[in-house]
Specification:
Layout: E1 6-10, H1 16-25, E2 31-35, H2 36-42, H3 44-52, E3 56-63, H4 67-80, E4 84-88, H5 93-103, E5 109-113, H6 121-128, H7 134-148, E6 152-154, H8 160-167, E7 172-175, H9 194-200, E8 204-207, H10 209-212, H11 217-228
Parallel strand pairs: 1-2, 1-8, 2-3, 3-4, 4-5, 5-6, 6-7, 7-8
Helix pairs in contact: 4-5, 5-7, 7-8, 9-11
């Protein structure tokens, strides 16, 4: 299946001013991610602002609560006009189904987060209580989430190919941990290049510092687009 892999710019900053600057230097980009860091600082106001300015929003709040609460939160997010929202797969089928039901009839899509990439296998087994490898847990939770109604998943580069095989071609896969071939890994350990992510089946790649901290962000974006196109 031929797919087009799109770039999402991660607005992982503390203030509205920093976020506006980032959007300004990435003026040619359509997709932006607002996560817990920026949302805690600015609330829904900045999300509304970007949507009003024709930007497509990935609201990455990783909702995890009782089904009724998550359903209402997903409905509010859809009302903001966001294109993608995240929920924790470990909230279970009823919670995921509530989120999916809440966004029906809108353009908002629900993505499930399976196992946080910060968790080691020993932490997953000993602290979280999942007696399986991270890869097995990711695959199991991803299949369950899509069966429950999630439109797709968020997957680290390490899990991309495995999940595309397990889920098939239709579910969306969003991949963080992207580092172009010409950039440093910074503090990321599990990374891949834009081209490799596209080849492995990513629908979206999430990129932050390699663009925002580049001396020429427009050139960085163009280089990433060229990598995606091979």
């Amino acid at each position: 299946m031929n797919r087009s892999t799109e770039i999402i710019i991660a607005l992982d900053v503390d203030t509205r001013e920093e976020a506006l600057h980032a959007v300004g230097i990435c003026a040619g980009c359509e997709w932006f991610k607002v996560g817990l860091q920026l949302f805690t600082a600015t609330g829904p106001t900045f999300v509304r602002y970007l949507v009003a300015h024709k930007k497509r929003m990935f609201l990455d709040l990783k909702l995890h609560d009782i089904p009724n609460t998550v359903g209402h939160a997903a409905k509010v997010a859809a009302g903001l006009g966001v294109s993608l929202i995240t929920v924790h797969a470990s909230g279970g089928k009823r919670m995921i189904a509530a989120a999916r039901e809440a966004v029906e009839g809108t353009e908002t899509r629900v993505l499930a987060v399976t196992v946080l990439t910060s968790l080691s296998e020993s932490e997953l087994r000993g602290e979280v209580g999942m007696n399986e490898t991270p890869a097995d847990a990711v695959a199991r939770l991803a299949v369950m989430a899509v069966d429950a109604g999630a439109h797709g998943v968020v997957a680290s580069p390490k899990e991309l190919e495995m999940l595309r095989r397990a889920l098939g071609e239709k579910p969306l896969i969003v991949t963080p941990g992207i580092r172009p071939s010409w950039s440093s890994q910074d503090d990321q350990a599990r990374v891949t290049t834009p081209r490799d992510a596209a080849r492995a089946g990513a629908d979206f790649i999430v990129v932050g510092r390699p663009v925002l901290q580049h001396e020429n962000p427009a050139q960085a974006l163009q280089s990433i687009r060229e990598e995606l196109n091979g």
